[in-house]
Amino acid sequence: MNQPPVQILDGALACPVCRESLYLHHSATRVLNRIQGEDSDGVRISAPGGFEFSLKLVPFAEIPGRRDSVEIDFWCETCSRWDAKRTVGTLRIMQHKGATQLTWESVAAPL
Ligand SMILES: [Zn+2]
């Protein structure tokens, strides 16, 4: 399934579901760093919220792309109906072929 393009309006990130709301809130974040450069195993630091965090070794075969990435889950004031557990999508920031790309992953279906 094709994911919608990342849209930024007046410097604000637009919701990947309704495409209108600029009132997104980030929730869980994950940072994945390759240990020894591209195509190597990595370490993922996950921060689901509050004071929680975890650190995990990740085999290279389970890592998207060839380099490091950052993933941020978002919920939308409109689509999620103020429920922070209703994630509308995951924004992935990842270097690919020399460029830093922003893509939506795991975009939710509209309610
Ligand atoms: Zn929305």
Please describe the topology of this protein.
Blueprint: E1 8-9, E2 12-13, E3 24-34, E4 42-49, E5 52-58, E6 69-76, E7 89-96, E8 99-105
Antiparallel strand pairs: 1-2, 3-4, 3-6, 4-5, 6-7, 7-8
Task: Provide structural commentary.
This protein is mainly β and 111 residues long. It has one domain. Helices cover 0% and strands 48% of the residues. Strands 5-4-3-6-7-8 form a six-stranded antiparallel beta sheet, with no helix packed on it. Strands 1-2 form a two-stranded antiparallel sheet. A hairpin with a 7-residue loop joins strand 3 and strand 4. The model has no long low-confidence stretch (mean pLDDT 92). The site of zinc ion has 8 residues, from loops.
SSE pattern: EEEEEEEE
Structural class: mainly beta
Fraction in helix: under 10%
Strand order of the largest sheet: 5-4-3-6-7-8
Summed over residues and divided by their number, the pLDDT gives a mean of 92
Count of separate structural domains: 1
**Bound molecule kinds, no repeats:** zinc ion
Report the principal-axis shape: globular
What is the gyration radius calculated from CA atoms? 15 Å
Summarize the biggest pleated sheet. 6 strands, antiparallel
Strand content: over 45%
Count of helix runs: 0
Defining key terms:
single chain; 111 residues; 6-stranded antiparallel sheet; globular
Short summary:
The chain is mainly beta and 111 residues long. It has one domain (8-105).
